[in-house]
From TrEMBL:
Disordered: region residues: 133-159
Descriptive protein name: SsrA-binding protein
Sorted UniProt keywords: Cytoplasm, RNA-binding
Function: Required for rescue of stalled ribosomes mediated by trans-translation. Binds to transfer-messenger RNA (tmRNA), required for stable association of tmRNA with ribosomes. tmRNA and SmpB together mimic tRNA shape, replacing the anticodon stem-loop with SmpB. tmRNA is encoded by the ssrA gene; the 2 termini fold to resemble tRNA(Ala) and it encodes a 'tag peptide', a short internal open reading frame. During trans-translation Ala-aminoacylated tmRNA acts like a tRNA, entering the A-site of stalled ribosomes, displacing the stalled mRNA.
UniProt cross-references to InterPro entries, sorted A to Z: SmpB, SsrA-bd_prot, SsrA-bd_prot_CS
Annotated organism of origin: Mesorhizobium qingshengii
Broad class of where this protein is predominantly found: cytoplasm
PANTHER family named among the record's database cross-references: SSRA-BINDING PROTEIN, TMRNA-BINDING COMPONENT OF TRANS-TRANSLATION TAGGING COMPLEX
Record-stated family: Belongs to the SmpB family.
Protein localization: Cytoplasm
Keyword Protein transport among UniProt keywords: no
Amino acid sequence: MNQVRKADPNNKTVAENRKARFSYEVLDTVETGLVLTGTEVKSLRQGQANIQDSYASVEGGEIWLINSYLPEYLQANRFNHEPRRRRKLLLNKREMAKLSQSVDREGMTLVPLKIYFNDQGRAKLLLAVGRGKKLHDKRESEKQRDWSREKGRLLKERG
């Protein structure tokens, strides 16, 4: 019996950093929680967040999301939040130690890939540990992308 799955309104991507996979070689990903205020959650549910220029930083044994943009919730009036404030990321101690070691010792960068709501309706951030690509690596990935696109066109034309 085929059951048609309805798209869960809670389980949706709010913001995605598409430029991150082009600029960084993603080595590992970790799902983290976010410490948000009520108006930030309501703003996220409207789907207008932006994490293009944001990054994560290890400071004082905690990991912070810096320079992410969550627009103000218009109906909140004076109880609104600051759009570009630093937001604390929720991880357990072992994950935090692993990420801080990779940043300190190996020179990696913590890059947010996307913000989404999980099945329970909680806002989550997919955080990647990545190494910055050099210019020639970026050109190579662009060539691969163009070739795969061209290959798809050729296969489509020939049948």
